[in-house]
Specification:
Length: about 450
């Protein structure tokens, strides 16, 4: 059939819409979506023919209307949706970092669906401050005098530098001039905040004397930053926080630390024990510590600043504070998460900490569960393998956590092809390729994910 005669055979849109199939879809979805999907499919068909390509659209109902329904369903899929994280990277920035505890999720729902006490002082009926919702809790769990929360840690750093060091010097060790990712580079951020960067020491070694020599009348603060996504090993040296704090205070300047990862206080025996923690930094005399809500703290996106009342007060009053304020849903989740800490429940209730410290036997149980579900499927071959997972998200750099994964082979699809097909599902399953094999790391699976993965393989197409 020539392209022209094929084009002439396309029914009019109105004719298609008069068919029973269109009425059914209008009922099931909506008239507007049905019309728009019919138009899109017909337009695509026309395009194909006009460009001399084959088009296999069959306009006879019900075949045609099942295609229309498929398109409506695809268009209804939300862009931001849940995925199964089988990468083994616990704080995966591309996958939304920390999954929240149920308590935090419930807090979001309660606040999202109605009005709230966001800025209302219940006792007086007057205007309250959203910061006071979490300030006492933060002080309780970190030992700080005061705290302030903003939208994320990057904003916390900018606000801190702008409020404390605008037009003045900020001294940073050459080993700590970090890039976090997404072009957030410490030298640029210092400049953006209106402060001047003064470098001290060398990449691998910065001594107390190097900081001391750099301090002058223009110095506002010493900035320590966590080398959170790399590690300098070997011939290295850096003064302790206590030494830095003593030096800073003796010379009348501040010591600020950008910690990023956000372990609130030490917990011996845990994997996060090796990360710097906020309580220790405060105790050592750091004037303000900035960290993320959604890294090792295991809460929502937020930037937290804990420190002395004098310093935090300057941040609260700075004009930028309004521009970087935290939203009410994150605040609700942050409060609920901090309450779990205050109640001593962090190891049982914070998903990120549970995953990081997950016992190898529990990971293996999950791998067995997944492997037995997958082995029952045609075309699928799998076995349990040892692998390494990572904390990710700028935490525990270089720390490989031993884990178990299921390595999967499909009779009809290559590993790369499987990876893509799994990613394209309504609930995408995100795995990784390791040494040519598709690997599903079970450390980062949540309850019920094994069944979701098996269902994805069963419908791989
Ligand atoms: C992650 C990180 C940040 C940025 O935190 P966000 O909450 O992602 O804005 C800043 N500083 C350090 C040291 C970090 O690790």
């Amino acid at each position: 059939m020539s392209a022209n005669s094929a084009l002439r055979k396309i029914p009019a849109i109105n004719t298609l819409l008069e068919r029973a199939g269109a009425a059914t879809l209008s009922e099931r979805y909506s008239r507007d979506e049905t019309i728009s999907a019919v138009q899109a499919i017909v337009a695509h068909h026309r395009d194909q023919l006009a460009n001399g390509r084959e088009s296999t659209i069959d306009f006879s109902s019900p075949v045609f209307f099942s295609e229309v329904e498929q398109l409506i369903k695809e268009r209804r899929q939300v862009n931001l949706r849940r995925v199964v994280n089988a990468t083994g990277i616990v704080l995966h920035t591309n996958l939304g970092r920390a999954p929240l505890a149920p308590e935090a999720v419930n807090a979001i729902c309660a606040v999202a669906s109605g009005y709230s006490t966001l800025e209302l002082d219940i006792a007086t009926g007057n205007r309250g401050s959203r910061n006071s919702i979490v300030e006492d809790l933060l002080c309780e769990v970190t030992g700080a005098e005061a705290a302030f929360v903003v939208n994320n840690c990057a904003a916390a750093v900018v606000l801190t530098l702008a409020a404390l060091a605008e037009g003045r010097d900020v001294i940073v060790s050459r080993g700590e001039l970090i890039e976090i990712g997404g072009s957030f580079r410490m030298p640029d951020i210092i400049r953006q905040s209106g402060a001047r960067l003064v470098e001290a020491g060398a990449t691998n070694k910065t001594k107390l004397g190097d900081y001391e020599a750099a301090i002058c009348d223009d110095t506002a603060l010493l900035l320590k930053s966590h080398t959170s996504n790399f590690k300098i090993v070997g011939f290295t040296a850096a003064p302790t926080r206590r030494e830095l704090a003593e030096l800073a205070h003796a010379r009348g300047v501040l010591l600020i630390e950008d910690m990023g990862s956000g372990v609130l206080s030490d917990r011996t025996g845990s994997i996060e024990h090796d990360e710097p923690n906020v309580a220790d930094a405060i105790e050592a005399g750091v004037d303000a510590v900035t960290f993320s809500g959604d890294k090792l703290l295991g809460g929502p996106q937020a930037g937290v600043i804990c420190g002395t009342a004098a310093v935090v007060d300057r941040l609260k009053k700075h004009p930028l504070a309004r521009a970087v304020r935290i939203d009410k849903l994150c605040l609700a989740a942050l409060e609920a998460t901090l309450r779990l800490y205050a109640q001593g429940l962090r190891e049982r209730a914070i998903p990120v900490l549970k995953m990081l410290n997950r016992d190898a036997t529990l990971i293996k149980d999950s791998a067995r569960n997944l492997s037995s579900r997958l082995s029952a499927l045609p075309n699928v071959n799998c076995k349990i393998v040892e692998t390494t997972s990572f904390a990710g998200g700028g935490s525990l750099p270089g720390e490989a956590l031993s884990s178990f994964a299921v390595a999967v082979e499909h009779a009809r699809h290559s590993p790369d092809d499987c990876l893509e097909r799994l990613r394209r599902r309504e609930t995408p399953v995100i795995g990784r390729i390791h040494q040519g094999r598709l690997i599903l790391d079970c450390r980062t699976l949540l309850d019920g994910d094994e069944a979701v993965i098996a269902n994805a393989f069963a419908n791989l197409a």
